[in-house]
Design goal:
The chain has one helix spanning 35-74; strands at residues 2-7, 10-15. By secondary structure, it is an alpha+beta fold. It has a two-stranded antiparallel sheet. It is rod-shaped and about 75 Å long.
Length: 75
């Protein structure tokens, strides 16, 4: 949105892009939060993190093994 301001007989031209936040936030309303869903999400995230670590370390060990085998065969 373009806005033009006149201040002390000077023209100030500003291009203002504003993002609207949610229209109305009702503070009084309560949301129901299921603690079991939150805990299950945390457990799933932890399991996924462990899987990623295992895969990463296995690739590192495989790479080191292949590098060692290549050096052994070249000698």
């Amino acid at each position: 949105m373009r806005k033009v301001y006149f201040h002390n007989e000077k023209l100030i031209d500003q291009n203002i892009n504003t993002k609207r936040l949610s229209e109305v936030q009702h503070i009084g309303e309560r949301q129901v939060v299921d603690i079991n869903k939150l805990l299950n999400r945390v457990k799933i995230d932890q399991k996924n993190e462990i899987k990623r670590k295992i895969i990463f370390y296995s690739f590192v060990i495989l790479g080191l093994f292949l590098l060692g085998a290549l050096i052994t065969f070249l000698k």
